[in-house]
């Protein structure tokens, strides 16, 4: 997604030589839909992120395992009885919550999408606003794909030793830039673990400097990587071999048939309409 955005801004003529784009990140797909809606998408694009295989195995099942792996490797904290707020209840948020709940953590959810919020409620979680619980929680995990989800105001109100980490997108969800000021002291505890110290002595434990916890602090199962890579490869082959005119300058969902049917033949898929 970042590469597509960069090429679009800096070298738009490159798109004349590109047959299509394959995008597998949540935020990257969101950007493509924005370009398509504005009529600025120059080439066809395939939304791999919302394919059955990618969404479930990478976003849900993998995060269910890697969230605990990353937190345990970096903090060694015990989660039974800890109060945790998970920002976002999409596929990533669902995976994180399932793992934390199984360990006995008290889990709160923040969510702006009404359907996802209802799902969180029906799954037995309390849906709150971040401001309502920020003073009492022991762990804050972002899983939204948005930016500035946890702001400096939130960080100032956190209690001592609160753990803050990101499972969402890049390094935009936690406002880490606002912490790099002369009034705050950074102390490197171990690799990927920093204590940010306030003038009154309060410490916030920041993991991976706000970057993705699962990519920075844990291992990702090779099975998950192989599924994602294979799905992207199939989408690339389909875009390359499709006859001219099949795909317009729009964003297309990867058909279930491509991920499930062993008889798939490149360029011969009944894709249907753009999404």
From TrEMBL:
<dbReference type="Pfam" id="PF05221">
    <property type="entry name" value="AdoHcyase"/>
</dbReference>
<dbReference type="InterPro" id="IPR015878">
    <property type="entry name" value="Ado_hCys_hydrolase_NAD-bd"/>
</dbReference>
<comment type="similarity">
    <text>Belongs to the adenosylhomocysteinase family.</text>
</comment>
<dbReference type="GO" id="GO:0005829">
    <property type="term" value="C:cytosol"/>
</dbReference>
<dbReference type="InterPro" id="IPR042172">
    <property type="entry name" value="Adenosylhomocyst_ase-like_sf"/>
</dbReference>
<dbReference type="GO" id="GO:0006730">
    <property type="term" value="P:one-carbon metabolic process"/>
</dbReference>
<keyword id="KW-0554">One-carbon metabolism</keyword>
<keyword id="KW-0520">NAD</keyword>
<dbReference type="Pfam" id="PF00670">
    <property type="entry name" value="AdoHcyase_NAD"/>
</dbReference>
<dbReference type="InterPro" id="IPR036291">
    <property type="entry name" value="NAD(P)-bd_dom_sf"/>
</dbReference>
<protein>
    <submittedName>
        <fullName>Adenosylhomocysteinase like 1</fullName>
    </submittedName>
</protein>
<dbReference type="InterPro" id="IPR020082">
    <property type="entry name" value="S-Ado-L-homoCys_hydrolase_CS"/>
</dbReference>
<feature type="domain" description="S-adenosyl-L-homocysteine hydrolase NAD binding">
    <location>
        <begin position="59"/>
        <end position="220"/>
    </location>
</feature>
<dbReference type="GO" id="GO:0033353">
    <property type="term" value="P:S-adenosylmethionine cycle"/>
</dbReference>
<dbReference type="InterPro" id="IPR000043">
    <property type="entry name" value="Adenosylhomocysteinase-like"/>
</dbReference>
């Amino acid at each position: 997604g970042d590469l597509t955005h960069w090429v679009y801004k800096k070298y738009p003529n490159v798109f004349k030589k590109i047959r299509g784009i394959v995008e597998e990140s949540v935020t990257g797909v969101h950007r493509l839909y924005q370009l398509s809606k504005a009529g600025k998408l120059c080439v066809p694009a395939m939304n791999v992120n919302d394919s059955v295989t990618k969404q479930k195995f990478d976003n849900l099942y993998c995060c269910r395992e890697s969230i605990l792996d990353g937190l345990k490797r970096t903090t060694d904290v015990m989660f039974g009885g800890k109060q945790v707020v998970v920002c976002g209840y999409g596929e990533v948020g669902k995976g994180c919550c399932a793992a934390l709940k199984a360990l006995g953590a008290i889990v709160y959810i923040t969510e702006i999408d009404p359907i996802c919020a209802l799902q969180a409620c029906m799954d037995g979680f309390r849906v709150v606003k971040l401001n309502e619980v920020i003073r009492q929680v022991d762990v804050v995990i972002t899983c939204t794909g948005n930016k500035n989800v946890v702001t400096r105001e939130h960080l100032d109100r956190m209690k001592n030793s609160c753990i803050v980490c990101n499972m969402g997108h890049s390094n935009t969800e936690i406002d880490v830039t606002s912490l790099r000021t002369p009034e705050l002291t950074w102390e490197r505890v171990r690799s990927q673990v920093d204590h940010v110290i306030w003038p009154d002595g309060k410490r916030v434990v920041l993991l991976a400097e706000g970057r993705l916890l699962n990519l920075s602090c844990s291992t990702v199962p090779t099975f998950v990587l192989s599924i994602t890579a294979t799905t992207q490869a199939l989408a690339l082959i389909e875009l390359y071999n499709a006859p001219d005119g099949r795909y317009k300058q729009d964003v297309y969902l990867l058909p279930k048939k491509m991920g499930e049917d062993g008889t798939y033949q490149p360029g011969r898929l009944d894709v249907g309409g753009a999404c």
